What does this fold into?
Amino acid sequence: MEDSTSKEKILKKIRKALIHKSDADSGTVDFDSEIYTSSEESPEILFAQQFTALNGKFAFCENESDFISTFASLIAENKWDNIFCLDEKIKTLLKKAQLKYSDQESDFLTLNVGVTSCEFLIARTGSIVLSSKQESGRRLPAFSNYHIVVAYSDQLVHSVKDALAGIKTKYGSNIPSLITTISGPSRTADIEKTLVQGAHGPKEIYVLLIDSLVK
It folds into this structure.
């Protein structure tokens, strides 16, 4: 008996195809070659271009003294208060500059500016790689109104693949339970089709990149 509907004809063809499977040769898949074209720009410039295009704010610091000066200027310009930091290396720099901050749990809920380090910066996408193994933990990057990321130029990598390889090299088998990337402040237009920046997490994200060759 002939199929009475187009649907039955299609289902019949599908059943026949599932019964008589062909051995498809997918060939050899190359997982190692770079799939993105290389850039003639330096990693610092490429990251800055990509990150600022995503509404991030970027500053290159020639050394740690320049970082202190730049950060102090940002604090004065934006009238920031309630600065919070848990990273020991960054706290040493802030103490040296006599910049006020807190690392006390009792001040966490009232923090305004969160200062953290990062694992890596991805030049190609302008992304910041963070992990739960960092001293800042999971909460600080997401809770602050303004997130300041302090990084060194030797933390720049080209792609996500390079960053993950770096994580594996750094932590071995003790991989962090959380590895995430940030590419500028969050944005949404769900409310009345109006674009809102910083809807979830910090309103603004700054990357202060210090030249690793001069500290």
Summary: The domain at 40-186+195-210 is CATH 3.40.50.10420 (Rossmann fold). The mean pLDDT is 87. Residues 151 and 209 are 5 Å apart (CA to CA). The two ends are 84 Å apart (CA to CA).
